[in-house]
């Protein structure tokens, strides 16, 4: 998630682990430790644009690395809060609680986190929260600040309950969205065995479903309020790797980069017929009923040993923002229907 959310959750977890330590400094140290794993964003390459995708949420976010990462943070912050923590062990446990929370929180989102690295490179994504969700973050921030200002443990307990309860609510919403998406697929006559539901931007009301049928990915939007609203979306062809191999040498760097991007996208790679060299990550879009990707790679068959280009394509136009808000507030939308 975003650094602010990570810092707040790290602070809450640190305070939970060491309730008798100095409240303010425990929260602050926990927040620093909670944000530390995202220093992996500094791992980049000027020639290999996919290196960032491989290393972000990798070893610094893994369960196995958490004790080491906490040790680094505890050592690096020895000059801070000297009067609050009597022993290094006390400081270390606070850092461990904050640091460990980071990977777990990221795993609740849709992006994918290598929690089990180096034992497995599986990207864990529980798909129960958006990467940015003010309704999760702001109440946590409020109650954490109140806990510091009034030195009352009750505010901390409310923050802890909100932190856990929101994840639980997201899990329920995901299950509802998967069931609703399956209903829509059946109404189309598509006999599918798997469907993915992911929360839309900054909301547990809006969900995007993706499923594969007959060589295409079908993307639909759902509003999971007291009743379900459907926003039938688009479909795009799944990448035909046999066809792609006729244009890109499977032993080339371009093909290797395609495989890396497919791994990052958890297999959800699509293509548009008009631009066959643009390979998209179907999972992400600004609007829940859209197949227009947030990012894609561009292959170059004429230069098979060059790295692919990685291109971001976020549509933040006023029209997109207005339509997103209309979906959130359940206003009249032309393509809304129920199967």
Distance between the termini: 34 Å
Q: Which sequence of strands runs across the widest sheet? A: 1-2-3-4
Profile the largest sheet.
Answer: 4 strands, antiparallel
**SSE pattern, N- to C-terminal:** HHHHHHHEEEEHHEEEEH
Entry keywords:
339 residues, 2 domains, disordered C terminus, four-stranded antiparallel beta sheet, alpha+beta, 43% helix
Can you describe what's shown?
This protein is of the alpha+beta class and 339 residues long. The chain has two domains: 3-126, no CATH class; 189-325, no CATH class. The protein has helices at residues 3-17, 23-35, 51-55, 66-76, 88-107, 134-150, 153-187, 241-245, 253-264, 318-329; strands spanning 196-199, 206-213, 216-224, 228-237, 269-272, 275-281, 295-298, 309-312. A four-stranded antiparallel beta sheet has the order 1-2-3-4, covered by helices on one side. A four-stranded antiparallel beta sheet has the order 5-6-7-8. A hairpin with a 6-residue loop joins β1 and β2 (206-213). α1 (3-17) crosses α2, α1 crosses α5 and α1 (3-17) packs across α6. The longest helix has 35 residues, at 153-187.
Sum this structure up briefly:
This protein has helices at residues 3-17, 23-35, 51-55, 66-76, 88-107, 134-150, 153-187, 241-245, 253-264, 318-329, and strands at 196-199, 206-213, 216-224, 228-237, 269-272, 275-281, 295-298, 309-312. By secondary structure, it is an alpha+beta fold.
